[in-house]
Fold these 3 entries.
Entry 1:
Amino acid sequence: LGRVLRPYLKTCAAPLQEAARAASSIFLCGSWKTGALLCAALLFMPRYFVFAMSACVLGGFIAKLMQLPTAMRKDGTLLYNVFLSALAVAWITRGSTLGLAAVWGMLGVVTVYTLLLSAALWHWFPLRAGLPPLSVAFVVSFGTLLTFFPHWAASTTLLDMGLPEEPALPFVATAFLRSMGTILFLPNVWAGLAVTLAVLMWSRVAMINAIVGYAGGILIVKLLEGCGLHWLGWFAGHNYLLAGMALGAVYFVPSWSSLALAFVAGGVAALHVAAVQHFLRGSGWEYLPLPYLLTIWSLLCCLRLREKPGSLLPTAGVFDNPEAAAAALALANARFPHRHETHVLLPTAREVTVTQGFDDKLSHRGEWKHALDFEVHDASGNACPPGCDDDLSRYYTQGLEVRAPGAGEILRVVDGVADNAPGGCNFASNWGNHLILRLDYGGIVKLAHFMKNGILVKTGQRVGAGELLGYCGNSGRSPVPHIHLHNQVTTETGAPTAPFCLTNFFIRSADGVRWNFAGVPKVGARIAPATVSTTVLGTLAHLAPGAATY
Amino acid sequence: LGRVLRPYLKTCAAPLQEAARAASSIFLCGSWKTGALLCAALLFMPRYFVFAMSACVLGGFIAKLMQLPTAMRKDGTLLYNVFLSALAVAWITRGSTLGLAAVWGMLGVVTVYTLLLSAALWHWFPLRAGLPPLSVAFVVSFGTLLTFFPHWAASTTLLDMGLPEEPALPFVATAFLRSMGTILFLPNVWAGLAVTLAVLMWSRVAMINAIVGYAGGILIVKLLEGCGLHWLGWFAGHNYLLAGMALGAVYFVPSWSSLALAFVAGGVAALHVAAVQHFLRGSGWEYLPLPYLLTIWSLLCCLRLREKPGSLLPTAGVFDNPEAAAAALALANARFPHRHETHVLLPTAREVTVTQGFDDKLSHRGEWKHALDFEVHDASGNACPPGCDDDLSRYYTQGLEVRAPGAGEILRVVDGVADNAPGGCNFASNWGNHLILRLDYGGIVKLAHFMKNGILVKTGQRVGAGELLGYCGNSGRSPVPHIHLHNQVTTETGAPTAPFCLTNFFIRSADGVRWNFAGVPKVGARIAPATVSTTVLGTLAHLAPGAATY
Amino acid sequence: LGRVLRPYLKTCAAPLQEAARAASSIFLCGSWKTGALLCAALLFMPRYFVFAMSACVLGGFIAKLMQLPTAMRKDGTLLYNVFLSALAVAWITRGSTLGLAAVWGMLGVVTVYTLLLSAALWHWFPLRAGLPPLSVAFVVSFGTLLTFFPHWAASTTLLDMGLPEEPALPFVATAFLRSMGTILFLPNVWAGLAVTLAVLMWSRVAMINAIVGYAGGILIVKLLEGCGLHWLGWFAGHNYLLAGMALGAVYFVPSWSSLALAFVAGGVAALHVAAVQHFLRGSGWEYLPLPYLLTIWSLLCCLRLREKPGSLLPTAGVFDNPEAAAAALALANARFPHRHETHVLLPTAREVTVTQGFDDKLSHRGEWKHALDFEVHDASGNACPPGCDDDLSRYYTQGLEVRAPGAGEILRVVDGVADNAPGGCNFASNWGNHLILRLDYGGIVKLAHFMKNGILVKTGQRVGAGELLGYCGNSGRSPVPHIHLHNQVTTETGAPTAPFCLTNFFIRSADGVRWNFAGVPKVGARIAPATVSTTVLGTLAHLAPGAATY
């Protein structure tokens, strides 16, 4: 028998896993195991389980037929609105006198319609509105269904669904657990407990944010009640906790700031609940998670207007759970404190000494403080052999090959300025012979004080990283030959400088030579470019703890 | 008299043709002759004709004054909402006791407002929502009018408009023809018949899709009625048939799949009719084609989410009617089966032999199966003169000029790898000397196994089609000199390959030489580039049936 | 005491100025002085003043905490919705029995929510809808508040607010001034007069447009009343005058056309008022400036669809007031009549004679009329020394250096066509040796009739302005050596030409040499490029009246 059944079981496994992922997507969670537990919680009402699974199988089949994106089908994105709609159909028809054919026909129509709408909105929303559609397809299709059958909407407040009797708990705990259960149309403490445990298995941080969001919602409920407003605030608790979970843990990396956001989100959701209930009173739509959607959309848009992210950072990338996102961020901050800055390579192949650093005494000041000067010194720290201070050509840096600090395009070249005698300065031509290079990966770099006619590249030319750009000289405001390097905010000559850091270089010290992934060397540091592949080192750097030492 | 009238007639002809095009636009049809027939059908109610023509003349004048796009004015896009609004005004004021001035004032205000709104939405919708606005301006302006005058909305269900008495037909036929007439506010079998004939003159396929869409709508009406829902499903038939026609024949190329889509569209439109009637009951908006708009928008968005178009292809370009779109697609498929692939020219000017094809035994396998190897062979099929197998320089392919297979930009150049002795292979450097070229018209092409220092181009350089890139050699994993050509999905070295085909080349066979517009030659084929202009041949190829033979 | 208070006063000054800017933003005016006067007008109801200032301080603090853009906070964009909401709260709670804590709690919640929503919409609207959000955040948050407390909405029509007794004025004047006051929730003639004076201080043109917009609105009110429609048209006057002011003076540069637009805008706003009042009757939303928003959005979109701006130009840039915008436009039109055309430099460094101009007799005709031919002539106007007509090499223009008329990219180069003997023409190759150059600042320029092998640049190459492109010859349809220059609409060979003008050149006449910023020289003009910096001259040109003479 097993032999006969196995292929059928395999065929069934895929849609069941898709259904589990659909269930987990309701909580914005990507773990199908949590989804499986949520599906198991549906067994409080076996009718729910059967309807949800049937809808997912039908929905998956139609999605395949229509060649909707495989990834969206598999990760539950497309099907979770279908899943919710199926639960909704199971819920409103639970005490109905309708025939089996009518009920299953309704389930079929609702499933197909929800799937089509879900696909339409998953195309439209991210592309056109720049917002996640979340469960809006469910809200629209089920809201419409409630509009058709207003007497069902009227019966939705009745909680006598044959669910297990509830234990005596503090009112707040009962309300919270019921709200958890309500998300799966199971307004019952035991069901809510099952859902809570499933979510906890996935992420404790998410659950904390849910509780904080709920608290924020209840605070506003109390406040509005104090103003004499009567409404179904308690019933709509799922909006507060989902809003708290989504904004405090999923869309933003968990932190104290995001916890505060979860609280605010719960409060805003409560305001939206009150508004929606007044506008749509009696239409059945007042039970739907529309306030949750409005809250997510308005707060996401609001936070995108910020000038600086501060301590509230949007989650970048896909993580197992909020904890993993926070851990990844913390690790990245610890390992690569400079990673948001422009990265440039040392613009020479030789070992050089930093003779002026960031915000330094001489000329790297004010708006032009993010700049570095480099010279070649001998072992004794001299810029030229002793007694040759007057002979420009004896300076080690004169004629030094200057190389591109990254791939990019040459935006401007000024050449033809004469080299100064040692100690002299040309104040008429501040930068002397110089070039501006826009790096492909960000940054507008200026390299200055080239030798007269010492620049080999032309405006508009593309250069690769490390490509020879020209030869260092002593032109412009330069008493001794040196390379001036800075990063600037616009392409104009004289634009203010912007932070940057050198990448993939060695610093020589008394202890030996130490490799740096990125950093800004101090004055006097003797540094040299690491000639090994940045790709290899970048990859290794992710694996090994601490900074690599040569 | 004729002499006196002629200039006036000419001045009148333009707005009348614009009105005809406006009428045809209601059915998404670009033929002004069909529009003229539809206008003629208005003569069932001469009042309609006068109102519609007056509104089009006024609307056209204002559009000109405002310098709205000439093309949109002429093709009916801007005026068809005005046309419909004028019919609507004629309809609701048909039995009114309002004075002439009030009626014509209302017509004027509605015309101007509808035109302004139509222009606003034709700017906003395609640009911001990525969707066709269709008749949304009419819906909003006429819906508002009905809101102002609710007693008119109440009288809209009365069908006693003085239209000719209807013949005894089966109920479904009566309902369908009435729905056809309703689009022009003429809910009468005879008027519907006139409209039907006008549409049939334009396209029989469109009419079939209208009928199928209508059937889909009626099916859902029956189903919802089976669930106990009572509503005006029959009255809203124009939504089903317009949705079927639009999606089954106009927005998608007619095919069996699009016929199925028309059926689904009719059903979805019926669901939207039910929803709109419940939400807007008593406001007058329930008679408006809002469900048709919602259906088009949601299904268009839904189908745009698909990964692959399959057999349901969006109509590309402007055609006389759906039949012409289907014919053009069928012709294109028959003539240019490779037209969706990347097209590359043979990367040499010589006749070469294909020594390894797609998905071939040696190394073009798995993810790297879309690749071709070329060698120069003599008439006997040898790669070098007999007995010279050990002398690399005697191989015909060694030093062969390799030319750009299309215009584009050089993304990567690797040079300096030594050539192998014949029979040798350099497994340390798989590709030997090679380059990657991004083609302007799509495709990322790799050419490999150049001679040491044999590449003449640099990273970042632009090359034209046929430009000399370098000389073939025997570097990398290459036992005998050959050109390796493939197309890859990303710019990374080692990225999987993607399908492509050669274009504009000759294949020599026993029967002579045959020209190919595009194709993937088989192993052993002797091929040579066609040196004549691709523009000329491409143009000729469209005209002449069959493939050109040299 | 002053010493102790000074730092506190300084801390208070910033939020007070922000509040003044918020007040001025209501009238789309950027002057904080007008805003301060409007705030002073609030003192008719000291409660209003206190509420508005408190909300602005709280809102400014939260905006800072959230790192919302400093500029938007300072210019009133973010806070003016908060300002209006605070007035609204002061208004609806003016006669309420609610405790102080409830009222101030409500003010706090409304302020925070309005700020969040305002930020969300200022991110979303411009980016996604391409429209200004204006006061939509206020409409939504206050509309929701009215929905919560419908009895307040009912009391909003009562005008007995303890405002000063009104003087006996003509009905229209009373209505207009009340509408002006209503914007600050002060429906009283004296308050309206104060607001009017504040706006007049900023701009008389804006006030004229407000009056014209009001007139347009009242016309439609009368018209609809003539059709038997009863509604609160008079009450909603602020919509008409704000719409007139916004479209007639702020979004478009004031002109006779914009005055007409203000009239239309007032009328459209009245239609929207009627529609909104019917749709939202009894919800409280009918008193909100939603019709004003709908009017701005629909007319802005409508006018953006225009093909040509005509005399109704959108305001470009930020100006002190509409008068300044109109003056700046008038000055620019007078000084730079060619500024909307493509600007090209003379493609040579020598003085040349224009031998064929725009729309000229020989070959610059029809679609190719925007073209110029240049030759070098001697002082007597000869193209070569007398008697040398047969010797091509003696023509002054033969071998002339042709220089890039602007920075850009070479799109096409055709070279290798033989030079004609003098007097000959090569009809097989119309353009002879030529190149097409896409200018970075717009324009696709063709330069034709180069010497055989006389083009020095390659396809795909970037060139700077004035860079040497090649040497003039006598190839193609050219009987004597000359440079042909035109600007074309697409990159195709043979594409129609488009208007352009030469920039920064001298014209020599009997009176001397005159510098031209831009212009199209006539046939026979002797012109030479100005070699001085265009930046310097462009800057000077803005300062000095009239055209500079050399």
Entry 2:
Amino acid sequence: MASAFVSYHACYNISYSLAKDIHYLSKLKLPKFNIRGNGSTSAVTKIRASTVSTVPHVIENVDMDLKQTRQNIPTTKQFVDPHRQGSIIENGVRYRQLVVIRSYEVGPDKTATLESILNLLQETALNHVWMSGLLGDGFGATHGMVRNDLMWVVSRLQLQVEDYPIWGEVLQLDTWVGASGKNGMRRDWELRSQATGVVFARATSTWVMMNKRTRRLSKMPDEVRAELSPWFIEKQAIMEDTPEKMKKLDDTAKHGTSSLKAKRSDLDMNHHVNNVKYVGWMLETMPDEFMEQYQLCNIILEYRKECGSSDIVQSLSEPDEENRTTDESLRSLNGMQIKYTHLLQTKGEVKNEEIVRGRTTWRKKHSKMPFPM
Amino acid sequence: MASAFVSYHACYNISYSLAKDIHYLSKLKLPKFNIRGNGSTSAVTKIRASTVSTVPHVIENVDMDLKQTRQNIPTTKQFVDPHRQGSIIENGVRYRQLVVIRSYEVGPDKTATLESILNLLQETALNHVWMSGLLGDGFGATHGMVRNDLMWVVSRLQLQVEDYPIWGEVLQLDTWVGASGKNGMRRDWELRSQATGVVFARATSTWVMMNKRTRRLSKMPDEVRAELSPWFIEKQAIMEDTPEKMKKLDDTAKHGTSSLKAKRSDLDMNHHVNNVKYVGWMLETMPDEFMEQYQLCNIILEYRKECGSSDIVQSLSEPDEENRTTDESLRSLNGMQIKYTHLLQTKGEVKNEEIVRGRTTWRKKHSKMPFPM
């Protein structure tokens, strides 16, 4: 199956450019792969915690059995998950989950927050891997990846929001994967209203593998390709244009906040600052008056480096020059969009290091919200 | 049904003591109430946005109809909610919902965070009201409360955690309500493992009504009592001891953080700082080394005043004197608990105003977590 995701961040200690590495990887001619799997995992050895002596062995087996009972991670492909309300559809490759927008997932306007939507993307990606029977660790790595000491790192994420779901709304969230170059994976999502079928949001992301020990990007091993490729489909949620180059902001940026620091509660189960927190930091610089009038309709994130829990982070953002020179009356016309560039970086004594660059597009909020304000 | 909750905070602009008011209310002799409802809302007029002229009327009706289609709030009692996986059980009064702990609801140790548990309490309370057909607004007020311009305010919340659910674990979360004195309501919760039936957590809370215009606490009107009382049951999730008096901390407290301020993303759909954020602020002062070794097993919150989005908040906490004098070797014994007192207050130019007082109890974390760390 599909694998995916999980901690939306390029990892730490990469001393060279992730972008350059990805470019290099996409040029590599890999041996033609041999499909050894068909989505079933019958050939996959059940992974147990490594053991060093007899007594720890027993304890660890007990722990893993307890974990298995409580968490119930399947070791073979499942088609229906009644608890998560998920199912595998479309010839066994696409994952669909029903979700209801909860009371604490909405903001003051009673529509789902951007953070909630990003959280749901993460959740369904992991559940897709879970359903595949391939989940080798908590971060979306397959058994083959675990055997090869590999983890996923995300290099790019784009989310387009047509409309925001409201509190209590029932949604269908679909996700699927495809090949991205020779060594990468694309993961897409589509979020619809269950009642009307109307699309609320679409997203796409690109993933590469990194060796956990060397912290270097890796080619996709054949055994991992055999696990993943039966799940790959061509369909794309967002048609790719030639990606526009994102300029790098500096201290002259119009809006900025420094001294952001991860709190204990910002760390995810990978002990990293979560991608969703990054987006929160990015948007914290936006002026209040702007956020009251505009809503985000597109965000593109390019990940460069992970931020550790002790890093001090600076968030910069700047509206496009053309927005600023546009006459206010024009800007307020329905359909007129405003664009911003963003940068999160760590402030080092010697040099700053980029964590993520972003581009956001904003449109005027509907004058009539689904709820009286 | 039951009503309950939603924004876990006493409201703003109360110029007198909430505690005193609650005391006064509990002494009032109210006329014996007349049960007019039986949980059905056939007699309840459907609420529409108030209208001032013909054109807005039409627009508002369209809006309300759209909202109804998208959100689908029932106007009569429902017994099963397939989307939220909720049902009304136990002679039609207790609400049970199945929930799965999601990947972003756990911390670095892969167990559900305190914030996630509190969020789920809020969510199930609201869904209980939703199922009752009595939901009059987004904050858990009944139709009768909306007609009387009343809202819920929470005065006390206690949560006991036996054990923390892990990532992917399937839970049964039950909630129900009872009378609290003459004019208040008690809402309780019980959180169990679906697989084993073991109780993870229990919670209880006390609610009173406040007039939205005058910002004064209110007696429970007969029509509201008629809506709520058919849902009241005696059973309590946590047996009440005589509540211990919480001392008020001052600037001499051992740990403290000042200049906390709500961010845009901290505001809930009631435009207030959410209770869960309060708890986050409260625990932010706790030392890292302590939090690595200990886990919270009991928290009691006493709400005094709501904090506005522009308030600057100070968080203070202090371990009990007896903890500090206890020998370290004793403290580390399994079962030895550590207690803290907490205070959140706004720092005013003239005087500080209390938002919430808290007491927490902590025990050593299990040496063996369900996941390898």
Entry 3:
Amino acid sequence: MITEPSLEYRELVSERIRQALKMGQWQDAVALLQHLHPADRTEVFEELSPEEQQALIQHLGVENLAELLEWLDEEEAAEIAQGLDTAQLADVLDEMDPDEAADLLGDLRPEQARQALAEMEEAEEVRPLLGYPDETAGGLMTTAYVALPRSATLEEAIAFLRSIDPDTDIPNYLYVIDENQRLVGVVSLADLLRTTPQTRLEEVMDPKVIYVTADTDQEEAARIMSKYDLSAVPVVDNRQHLVGVITFDDLVEVLEEEATEDIYHLASVSDEDLDPESPLPEQIKGRLPWLYLNTLTALFASWVISNFEHIIAQAAVLALFQSVVAGQGGNTASQNVAMTVRSLALGKISPKNLLRILVKQFLAGLALGLLVGSMVGLGVYFWRGNLYLSLVLGSALVANLALGAVMGVLVPLALKAAGADPALASSILVTAVTDSAGFFIFLSLASRVLDHLK
Amino acid sequence: MITEPSLEYRELVSERIRQALKMGQWQDAVALLQHLHPADRTEVFEELSPEEQQALIQHLGVENLAELLEWLDEEEAAEIAQGLDTAQLADVLDEMDPDEAADLLGDLRPEQARQALAEMEEAEEVRPLLGYPDETAGGLMTTAYVALPRSATLEEAIAFLRSIDPDTDIPNYLYVIDENQRLVGVVSLADLLRTTPQTRLEEVMDPKVIYVTADTDQEEAARIMSKYDLSAVPVVDNRQHLVGVITFDDLVEVLEEEATEDIYHLASVSDEDLDPESPLPEQIKGRLPWLYLNTLTALFASWVISNFEHIIAQAAVLALFQSVVAGQGGNTASQNVAMTVRSLALGKISPKNLLRILVKQFLAGLALGLLVGSMVGLGVYFWRGNLYLSLVLGSALVANLALGAVMGVLVPLALKAAGADPALASSILVTAVTDSAGFFIFLSLASRVLDHLK
């Protein structure tokens, strides 16, 4: 019985591996690493310097190396694989799960991938997976599944499972196919255990097996697995032939990936592989374009203000509060963008509710605007003692929050309808509107009562 | 073989159910609903009016109703359960999975829950689950697992599994316990199938079973399952006794819940059950407090500007660009907040990297500041033709973006270290700093060259 080793323990192991490597005690270093669960092994390995990693790889052996590459980040795995010679790489790929091997091959230079594939013994398990785009069900699925004909008996099925190499994991579901290789049902191992040996698969299978097609977007495939509580989903081609299975670890990975993507895109970071430790050039590449776009919209807002420059010159107090109107409209809008983007991702919004949602959010924005506007109006009245200023500020807040609330729903839905990612540009587009409109509403209202504001 | 029915089809079914109900053809209505997968059944059911739902519930029967409540949203399930009488409710709870029954009981009035529990036949399966807080491993786990003594043979294990009611799902893993009920290993059904009948469980079990304790936070439990690729994880109490199992559907639910929570909290929405269609009072309750807090920080920024009011009165042009400095600092900070919060959630940041991250993000902020600052400086020079204005604006942007980048990492990490949720208040705290500092830096630089700006 084990639990996750503490950070301190993992650091201790890295340190001991480091020492063993320094003293040339390769076997000790390998043993220290192998003693850990592969998930922790990967973390400890990542703590080592590139030279130490290289030294260790030389002594890991094919099986251990294959396992390490399966658990490492895709980029790091590709980096290590690039350093292997073709024969070594082919052996390692043969040991890996077919879907992991296919992913790795996809990350290598085409020439190296071609050569390795040519030398692989089990290339035929991997080759069919290479044709599918990364972000589709086909790109996620593995060919390591068990499919049996509908006429097979349970006894035959069990005999087949027993014939599988004991080192290979057996999936928890068997898929049943007809004489044309078409998927017709699913049987769980639990069902196998509970019935008599002579029963045929077609008698115990669940014919209502839920499937996805190979070209289904990975996010959609994950949504289906999550909706139907499936720990594995079979993938068929356009002739309904079973071509692979997506397993629950892929589901988890996609869910985490898509959540990261949405969180990053909502904050205008377009590269979901970035983290605070990523190299500078990547930070700039994933962030600058959106800051630039944002800057352009901010300069447009500056232009809006410039039309009121003469008014601000007469009542500089306006410069104090214009940003409050713009900013709170933006915040209200961001709240709605977040809710809308997430509801879209979880499949909770259907187009037919659009009008109802817009009306509700207009009302919510109005209510929030009244509550924020009256607080600000009152506070500023006590501070500056000018009723006109308070009224202008309060009314502008009401209008801009209502506008922000509507835009916060409308913009992501419009982007989605246009086939774009609703998360990525929504914030920028929406705040472009709430900034410019906020300044305009506040300053043009102020210009009507300018004499009272000086 | 089935796939997800289209929206149109589901609407067609709702319509036909509606008609059947209207004509009093209860059996037809129930049959139409039961024909669907439970996941779709729930969606169709939700489309019906409260009166139609009520009429249908009367005729569903205990088993169907139990299944419906398992698949419905917690809140809707609780609403329906509240309308049942005690005997009915007890029967339905008996039919439900123990963890679902416990969740439902937790959502009812204590008095109703107590009475229903007293009338349940399988109360002893549910009672142990009621003591654990909702957001812990104990709150997620089910008692519907199979645990066998280490001395049991495979033959005995299979005989035991066959004795389980055929309507009950058998989990894919058996847990092995010692004479003191302590968890000592795990055996998969696949392992059972592959070994000889006389082998004892302790010979084939994996003793390195990964577990969590009942008081582990649900997010942490989900992280462990995800890290180690576990489709189920056993839960033990503080004496290492096996008390439950968390299954993969709970993992998926937690991952989605936690992602929603982070996305909402980053946008200052504190109620993760909100969506654009939620009732107005809930919208206001989940959003207003954060808008108010934000307003307070915005008014503080107004106060910062008020110290430069006399300068703005002399050079109103400053009011055009002050928000650009504040806003772009805020955007840079938000990018870092998103990356930091996500890296924390995925367990990718360790405290010992803090200094390295801060230095890297300071440099990234500086670089982004130089790139944004020079673009804005240049653009504004062409627009207004004032070199001093451009230089002040550009330098203020460099300073504020560097500050924003550092704060965007520091604030969520500080909140996390203080035991708070790094997602929730980070945006507000960080933009409070970048707004106030942005205005201050820009306006105080401007005051030094005021004569050139008039």
